[in-house]
Design a protein that fits this description.
By secondary structure, this protein is mostly beta strands. The protein has one helix spanning 2-17; strands at 29-37, 44-54, 60-71, 74-78, 81-91, 94-102, 105-112, 116-122.
């Protein structure tokens, strides 16, 4: 009887050990702003980004970033939120692009090559 009880306990613990962990449902999302020169030479530009950023806990916070006399190539990562970016070329011509990434996959983009490029972008979830 004890042998049967031990075998039952061992088989039960074997079943419990094989339970799969829950599938993660959180979404990793961020924006990537890149600014590059349209020629072989380095270009200079001013950058202003304003909007509302969402923290990892879901709180919304005002966001403002202003940098002058930046050089290409340039890359900046932004969390979820609603933003307006203004890129003003001060020397040379620049190509500006904002790409969304969700769980590592590209999700939508906006771009501009004007002397002053204004881009609006947001993550709505």
């Amino acid at each position: 009887m004890k042998l049967i009880l031990m075998l039952m306990l061992l088989s039960f613990t074997g079943l419990v050990g094989k339970v799969q962990p829950p599938i993660a449902t959180t979404q990793d999302f961020h924006f990537e702003l890149t600014v590059n020169s349209t020629s072989e030479t380095t270009a200079h530009f001013n950058l202003l980004i304003t909007g509302i950023a969402r923290t990892k806990t879901g709180e919304e916070q005002p966001f403002r970033l202003q940098r002058d006399n930046l050089k290409t190539p340039f890359k900046l990562s932004l969390d979820k939120g609603k933003y307006t970016a203004v890129i003003e070329a001060t020397e040379g011509t620049v190509f500006s692009k904002v790409q969304g990434f969700e769980n590592g996959e590209k999700k939508g983009y906006t771009s501009g090559t004007q002397k002053i490029a204004t881009m609006h972008f947001e993550y709505a979830n």
